[in-house]
Amino acid sequence: MMDCSDIREWLRRDLDGAAEPSSEAAEHLDRCPACKSEAGRFKAIAEASRAALPPAAVPVDFVDSVMHTLVEPEGDQELADAVRPRWASRLLIIPFVAALVVAAVTLWPRPEVAGAVLDTGASGSSGALSYTALEPSLFSVKAKELHAGVMHFACEEPTTVRTPLGEVHLRAGTACVIRVTESEEIEHMKLKDLKRIVPAFLAVTVFTGSCRVANAQGVEEVEEEKTVEVKKGNPPRVNEDAVSRELNHIAKALAIINKRFDRLSKAMTLQVKRATDAVADVVEVRVPAALNELEEAIRKEAAAGARYETYAVRLGLLDYLVGRSKATRRQQEMVQQLRRYQQLLRDMRRLEQSGGKVDGDTLRNFERSLKEFEQRVKQLAPLKARLEGLERVVKQLMAERARNADLAAQIRALKVQLDVSKQGKAETKWTWGAGHLHAFQRALRQAKIARADALAEGSPTAEWDRVIADLERKLGGDREWGKTRKAKKPVPGLLKYLENELDMNRTRLETARRALQKNPDNRACIDLCDKLNANIAALEWELGGVHAIMEKLEASKQALAAARAAGKPTADLEQAIAKLESKLVLPDVERNPPPPPGKGDVK
Amino acid sequence: MDDKSLVEAVRDGRTEFFADLVDRHAGAVFRLVRAAIRHDADAEDIAQETFLASYKGLGRLRDARRFRSHLLAIAARKVIDHLRRKKVRAGQVQMIEEPTAPERSEVRSLVTAVEQVVARLDADARLVFALRHHEGLSCAQIARILDLSKGTVYTRVSRIHNVIRRAMEVAE
To answer: Closest residue of A to B33, CA-based?
Structure first.
């Protein structure tokens, strides 16, 4: 009784071809699902192994070519001898030996030898045949194979000539002409297995008769009649099954080719459409827009005439030049793509002419798309000329920029200095020294950065060097920035101070009144309004005093001028003027701010 | 007519019957040779030589019913001679290379896995493999054809199948 392990061993041996058929195993497999599954796996291995071996189709003319090798006279005899059972040949040996003895006795005086000499030249595939009374020689025959064409041959000894249709066995002393012609050859591109479906013809002309030569020199003349045996040994017997199989293969191959062609056509059409869109985008949108921008920029520059303020424009031009080079590359790519498509179209036409099935609509669509693509590419030509003109303008501008680099650097340096002075002025309002220190330090940093930029651009840096040296000299002096010098405060005059205060108090009063209107009971507002009214009154009074002092000062000045003009002593007047002016000076409000004038202070 | 009748007819001098024998067995011979050599033109030459040799050897064939085995044995010898001439076998020490694990994406089917294994076999192993699976011969028959011991053939076939099983397991 076989168990599962025995069954599996039996299956393995069965796969290897070493197991005997077993009914017991079959019964076990019927009732054991696990072993049945294992048997399925082994069966799958066997089927996969069978399918994995390379397919091999027998050539259609194989049978004919094999048979042809068997029908040659010499070979036929030899083969016939070989085919016969050995006991038969043994029976025949006695008459054969007897015949041999008789023939030897009869024919012992060798007849006059008549043979043929063939000069095949170096190639040995063909040559001129001549007859001679001498022994035929084969020394010049280099090849004993004939693939196609005509071969003249003279055999000194039994010879075998290989042809595509088989071997031709020739007797000794035989001259022959072998022709191999292929009546019809059908080839299909890329289908190596379909080289021929109609077999070749083999014609063998054998000269078996004796030939005599009457030439005194002993060569080159044929007089004797010759026996010619022509064998069209291989009539075009076509193995119909094989041909139909091959035709099926061709049909399948053509179907595959057509499918691939359809896919390729669709893909190509899509690609052409995309490329056309890309060209349209470049030709109709990007390039005209870039050209318009460029022309506008150039026009602006020409109109403004500002040679040194157009770096932005020039930068734009440079950017455009970069873009233009990309557009040129894109154009080259498109032209290359166009050539590829044209080549593809030619291939398609060739395929169509050679009989391959090509979908006419697809081909026409493809041609139409390709024409559109060609049109688009052609449109690039005038744009290219326009671009070249603009490029010349840009080159001129670039040359001009190089010439003006020095001036540009100077202008930038002056701008920096101007900024320095502005910032310094702004910051000296309260802290003169520290403001200048910071401004100079910032200016020094900016100058160094600008010098590095100039170096990177290849512009001259002499001006920057001078500026930097100047700033460093200023910063490196023995001043104690921000400490030693206190700014003389440009304080406003008393008049202005009072006017400002008056305006401020009036504004506050107005605000307080508006608040009081909204809330008449607000005590704080009432108090504030009272206080502000008092302030305003005091300020107005003080302002009136200032105006009086100013009139008095003006009169004193006029008197001083008159005294000087008259040559009188002016000391008293000058003293009076100084006294008056001192009254107009505002007290130090920052350190000792005066108390706000209250009611009690009002004079 | 079966093989025996055809062989006897040829022996009687009716050579044209040999064409039927060629037609009947050309596929087997060609498949075997092609599987071992993997070169169409050489395979065709060897197949032709096989039939010519079999024709010549008909006189030595005792049992005409075994013409097919006789033919395959000749073909196998021709293949081996051809490989010797071409020195194809030089340096081929190992019969089968161990299969490397095929990439899963490439393994579409078990057949693909087996094809990968078969592609790595040397010519002798392919000959055995083709006789086993193309012709469906048993180890004993293969041994007679190749003039080898049954054990040798069994070992070779078994090794090939083991490699295929491993490759298929990887593929699964």
So the answer is: A56
